Every structure is written in structure tokens, then in C-alpha cells.
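Please, structure for the following, as C-alpha cells.
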Amino acid sequence: MKLHAGHYITAVMAIFILIMIQFMVRAYHNQESLVAEDYYAKELRYQEQIDKLHNAAALSEEVRFQVLPGHLLLEFPTAVAGSIITGELYLMRPNDADGDRRIALRADPTGRFTMDTGGMRRGAYSVHLEWQAGGVSYLTEDRIHLD
């Protein structure tokens, strides 16, 4: 049997179709989640976030995040340690939205907050901390890695 140009064209088209089918199957099974479900509403409040970031930058110290075995320790700046510190800690896993955590926080009088990380998945997290002290709102963002 002698092969001619028609056979080669058919073979190339069949291979191309198989590659495209494989691509579509992989794309279907790779479900990407949005960073935030309400991203449009958050975008409208973006100036508030910028103001909170500026408030945090104006402090002489930053919030320190220490990853300890089984715990995450937050140490707030000494300038606000005497006041009541409340807020929300949002730990976001960039590669898995099921691993995200939102924790309401209230620091102790020394300006520390400790949370248990025992049930959390190991890996990288983006930290988004919105907190209030002395009637002023702050925003601190960082990255941590739980071992």
C-alpha cells in the first residue's frame, strides 16, 4: 500500500483533533476559583483599603506574624498595645479556596493574638488582616508558610 498526501493530511488532522480533545478534557477538570466571589463590590471599596494601608504604614512598627509549631502568633505594634484591638484575619490559600480561613480576632492587653493551626493544611497562605485599635482602622497584608 502506497501512502500519498491525502493519508498524511488525514493523519495530521486526526492527531490535531486528539490533542484538542485532550486539552478540552484537561481544561474542564481544572476548576479555577475566583480570588473573591464579590470582587466587584470589593473594587468599589478600594479607596478604603488604601486608607487602611496608609494608616498601618504610618505606625512605627508592623504587625509581626510568627509561625510556631501548631500556632500562629500575631504581635501588634507597641503603639497600640494598650488599646482594644479587634479585627478579622483572612488566611487565603492561593492554590485551593477550600483551605481559606476567616477568623475574628481580639488581641490580649499585651497586643498579642494566638490561633491554633493544627487543623489547617500545610503550605503557603496570603494573610489579609483588617484590624481596629483606638478608633482607627488598619490593613496589613503578608505571606506566611505553615509547616
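Strands lie at 64-68, 71-75, 85-92, 101-106, 112-116, 123-133, 136-146. The first strand starts at residue 64 and ends at 68.
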